[in-house]
Design brief:
Length: 270
């Protein structure tokens, strides 16, 4: 998840949500809460991937790129929040105050059925992440002032619905991030569905409520196809502990390859 208002998306967010698999989040999200991590494993272990990857709206988290570290030689993490980016930088530098992701690395290694040591996988991810940059999905070039060659794969989890104030902005955000992806490239996307807020550190983040059909159609209109979706509805509940999310949408999609048009010279009729 990425920034929103005065919500503390840095260390406080990590401690509250990822420190102990916080029950309030799990109760509100339902089955999709843990499936969110499994989805990244399933996608990357089940396909043929490699090259360069960008994570749009990384927040302060790493779980979404742990599986990817097995396949990509270059990973760029990005987020709007300086505090969130700082947490990733601390981990990369092995700062003593960095958040401990050990249990998450162990989780993915077990999913893979691997005997790899945790410290070896951690080092693999540290070597793959070669930049942590500012990102604003509401800008035509989200990584301005930096410019990157388009990436082979993009990951984005719980970002656009938080960053977009309305549906018009959401549509533009999808178009904006698509410029970071190569034609024929893959996006791995996760989103809250129907949520209007999430409470983190006592602060409420406003979330744009979106439906599955709206999200999928927006990506189609932006030039994506072969969209393969998975949806996990949240449980019915009388009260919300952290968020009023209605469900969680996961999908992969391919950015269309523009048809090549041969230039023709119009000859004037005699």
């Amino acid at each position: 998840m990425t920034t929103g208002g005065t919500v503390p998306w840095g260390r406080e967010y990590l401690n509250e949500v990822f420190g102990t698999f916080e029950e309030g989040i799990v109760d509100d999200e339902g089955e999709g809460s843990m499936k969110s991590m499994e989805f990244f494993h399933d996608v990357f272990s089940g396909g043929s991937y490699g090259g360069r990857l960008i994570d749009v709206g990384s927040g302060s988290t790493l779980y979404q790129v742990i599986s990817a570290s097995m396949f990509f030689s270059e990973i760029v993490c990005s987020d709007y929040s300086q505090a969130a980016r700082a947490e990733i930088e601390k981990w990369l530098k092995k700062d003593k105050g960095a958040f401990d992701w050990t249990s998450y690395f162990q989780y993915f290694i077990e999913l893979e059925g691997s005997s790899e040591k945790i410290e070896d996988r951690e080092q693999k991810l540290r070597q793959a992440i070669n930049a942590v940059v500012h990102c604003d999905v509401l800008q035509p070039n989200p990584t301005h002032p930096l410019t990157f060659d388009p990436f082979d794969v993009m990951v984005s989890a719980y970002c656009l619905e938080v960053a977009s104030p309305d549906r018009e902005a959401y549509v533009k955000a999808v178009a904006n991030i698509s410029t970071l992806l190569k034609p024929g490239g893959t996006i791995v996307f996760e989103s809250y569905i129907g949520a209007t807020f999430a409470v983190i550190g006592g602060a409420k983040a406003k979330i744009l409520p979106v439906e599955v059909d709206f999200v999928v159609q927006t990506f189609k209109d932006a030039g994506f196809s072969d969209i393969k979706t998975v949806y996990y509805p949240s449980p019915d509940r009388d009260e919300y502990k952290v968020t009023d999310v209605k469900g969680m949408l996961f999908f992969t999609a391919k950015k269309d390859v523009a048809e090549k048009c041969e230039a023709s010279v119009m000859k004037a009729e005699n």
